[in-house]
Amino acid sequence: MPKIVTLPGDGIGPEVTAAAVEVLREVAPDVTIEEHAIGGGAYEDHADPFPQRTRDALKDADAALLGTVGGAHDSAWNKLPRHLRPESGLLALRRELGCYANLRPVRVLPGLEHLSPLKAEIARGVDILIVRELLGGIYFDQDRRINGDTAYNTMRYTTPEVERVAKVAFWAAEQRRGRVTSVDKANVLEVSELWRRDVQALRDRDYRSIHLNHEYVDSVAMLVVANPSRYDVILTENLFGDILSDLAAVIPGSLGVMPSASLGDGAGLFEPIHGSAPDIAGQGVANPAAAILSAGMLLRHGLKRPDAANHVDRAVAIALREHPTRDLGGKADTRTFTHAVLEALGTP
Ligand code: NAI
Ligand code: MG
User: Fold this and answer.
1) Tell me, what's the pLDDT at 23?
2) Which domain does 219 fall in, by range?
């Protein structure tokens, strides 16, 4: 029986995670769900934002569903030494799971074009999946230094690192529209030359049905907002992916509908991209769509149950249209929205 660890965390985390768990129980009743502590609450109760008991529970888990961590900007947690703050718990969690591929879908769901800052005819139907390498490149390389008026960092990738994340992108494209755009800066960077060569070789060897093209990151930064519909899967390295995924996040227009997944060799980590929203926490009005869609990604990528995942995606789209939450200009609270999703799941 698959086992999922839920980590509700702080602020609206427990509210939106509870909604996602209700949905999971409905579509995957055979799955064992175990709740554990992380973040500021975990520090209060266990003097550690990533307690040993949580760490142990993840060892035999098939996937982890995270809520959010962190307090208000004036929270006492922010005055703690850095390693005891809520965010340290989250970083330790990501390291522990060894998740090297970060997946961020950028979708404008039908009927929600008006939320996008882009023109409706450009936003309509956008459905991109950004696959970002998460454990390598310039953020992690230890060959780094600042000394007087000189500083350097090193961008380094190896073929195995490129191949393992590229496989995730090709695999995802096979479930989608079969197109991968690999993003690099091969006209000036040797690392990008290797990246491009290895991604192309992998495609030619094992993924002949995928249409692969290569584009430069500066050009993609313009095209992804000017003409987002030209993309299916975007595959890129850590630094470029960090910037492009935040840029693309403006397209749907609301944080409350954006899920994410981080995949590695072990259990994957699934979480909404929004924070703990202290301004609305405890009021029962948070939009649980991002958390529920993250549970959908867990079904798709963590448990390899694409039918259940599609079922959840469809139900969320219906609920968003019929019972929009306050962040989307509607009136539905967390309860009403969750009910609407459960109801839509029940109707074939
Ligand atoms: P935030 O994402 O929590 O909130 C930004 C704005 O969006 C707020 O007005 C909030 O009410 C609204 N919002 C966010 N999610 C919503 C939802 N599901 N439904 C309705 N409205 C929603 O970002 P902020 O305020 O910068 O950070 C608050 C705390 O969250 C901080 O402690 C921060 O460190 C933490 N944080 C945690 C993250 C995580 O756990 N992965 C990610 C980002 C921030
Ligand atoms: Mg970032």
Assistant:
1) 98
2) 101-255
